[in-house]
């Protein structure tokens, strides 16, 4: 692929790396402060000790998933594998989509806390995979 293609822009890799930092930050927050992360997602705080333990542990799983997704994006951006990075971004939008539906189903709101990521990941991923490159 030619170096002058939009998908090969170093600025896109920088934008992608910056975007992955928010995913990593959300993951770390959910691991270290699960109740705060739960509140950020508009979910009610559990009241019984058993519910608190279950929710805290589920939020840690959610945090680990976000941490690994962000790390995968960051490493791929650092290594310069733009096509793979683009597909990771597009694939991660499915995770955000499902998270939003789960939020809507569970508490009746909060889906846009998740779906806003789709507005970044799909366009950015599409550019990275070369969807807007000019054919030379």
Jot down its keywords.
mainly alpha; 6 helices; 76% helix
Main sheet specs: none
| Approximate helicity band | over 70%
User: Which structural class do you get from the secondary structure elements?
Assistant: mainly alpha
The total tally of domains equals 1
Based on CA atoms alone, the radius of gyration comes out at: 17 Å
Strand content: under 5%
What is the CA-CA span between the terminal residues? Answer: 10 Å
Q: Element order, helices and strands?
A: HHHHHH
Outline, from the CA principal axes?
A: elongated
Uncertain residue ranges: none
Mean pLDDT: 92
Tell me the total number of β-strands: 0
**Total helix count?**
6
Can you characterise this structure?
InterPro entries: DUF4267 (IPR025363). It holds the Pfam family DUF4267. By secondary structure, the protein is mainly alpha-helical. It has one domain. About 75% of the residues lie in helices and about 0% in strands. The protein contains six helices and no strands. α1 packs across α2 and α4 packs antiparallel against α6.
Task: Please sum up the structure shown.
The chain is mainly alpha-helical and 136 residues long.
Write the layout of secondary structure elements.
Elements: H1 10-32, H2 34-40, H3 49-79, H4 82-107, H5 111-115, H6 118-128
